[in-house]
């Protein structure tokens, strides 16, 4: 396996195959970040994903190596998410569910999973809608921190470095974001009423 530093150097000199290998190492993580931060807007997530690697390719020569490449890519993706959100701030942010068969060309399916009843499927859909809705209501700054920490599993220090925040600010946003989601889930599922 070729060392990442070698792939970076080759990419800087215009080696497209080397850059493709670099993308291959990080594409899943960057897409996951974009998908969770741009919750309910799959087209936005796709755009952030593509723009992250286009920006990285253009700016790779300026990458000093002070941080890991993954940290640098997360920072680019996070900034792109924030910029897109600012542009759309005047527009309503309505979450939409991805279709489970986005790749479907309309052809009939030969196999179908009958293991869940229609009621179970409806309950699952309702749960997904409520979780997606709660995430969509979460302010972007908190959503980024929650995604990097809870979804991507990065440390508080790594998250702080990516978002150019203090560790204390990351902890604060993480705590507030989790409380916000907890309150949203309690409202959505009536947990508060069941406790009384």
Please describe what this structure looks like.
With 196 residues, this protein is an all-alpha fold. It is 69% helix and 0% strand. It has helices spanning 4-12, 16-37, 42-59, 69-87, 118-137, 140-151, 156-163, 167-189, 191-195. It is globular. It is built from nine helices and no strands. The N and C termini lie far apart (59 Å). Helix 1 (4-12) crosses helix 2 and helix 3 (42-59) packs across helix 4. The chain has two domains: 1-90, Rna Polymerase Sigma Factor, Chain: A, CATH 1.10.1740; 118-196, Arc Repressor Mutant, subunit A (Orthogonal Bundle).
Give a quick summary of the entry:
This protein has 196 residues and is mostly helical.
Give the SSE layout.
Blueprint: H1 4-12, H2 16-37, H3 42-59, H4 69-87, H5 118-137, H6 140-151, H7 156-163, H8 167-189, H9 191-195
Helix pairs in contact: 1-2, 2-3, 2-4, 2-6, 3-4, 4-7, 5-8, 6-8, 7-8
Features:
196 residues, single chain, Arc Repressor Mutant, subunit A, globular, Rna Polymerase Sigma Factor, Chain: A, mainly alpha, 2 domains
Residue windows where pLDDT falls under 50 for at least 5 positions = 92-114
Q: Radius of gyration in whole Å, from Cα?
A: 20 Å
Q: What is the ordering of alpha helices and beta strands?
A: HHHHHHHHH
Percentage of residues assigned to helices: 55-70%
What proportion of the residues form beta strands (DSSP E)?
A: under 5%
CATH class of the largest domain: Mainly Alpha
Main sheet specs: none
């Amino acid at each position: 396996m070729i060392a990442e530093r070698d792939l970076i150097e080759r990419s800087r000199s215009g080696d497209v195959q080397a850059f493709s290998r670099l993308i291959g190492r990080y594409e899943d993580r960057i897409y996951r970040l974009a998908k969770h931060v741009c919750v309910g807007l799959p087209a936005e997530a796709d755009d952030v994903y593509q723009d992250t690697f286009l920006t990285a390719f253009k700016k790779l020569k300026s990458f000093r190596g002070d941080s890991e490449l993954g940290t640098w890519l997360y920072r680019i993706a996070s900034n792109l998410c924030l910029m897109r959100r600012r542009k759309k701030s005047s527009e309503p942010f309505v979450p939409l569910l991805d279709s489970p068969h986005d790749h479907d060309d309309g052809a009939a399916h030969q196999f179908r999973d009958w293991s869940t009843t229609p009621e179970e499927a409806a309950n699952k859909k309702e749960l997904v809608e409520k979780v997606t809705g709660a995430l969509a209501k979460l302010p972007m700054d908190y959503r980024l921190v929650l995604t990097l920490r809870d979804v991507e599993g990065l440390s508080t220090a790594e998250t702080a470095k990516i978002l150019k925040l203090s560790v204390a600010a990351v902890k604060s946003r993480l705590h507030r974001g989790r409380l916000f989601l907890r309150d949203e889930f309690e409202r959505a599922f009536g947990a508060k009423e069941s406790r009384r």
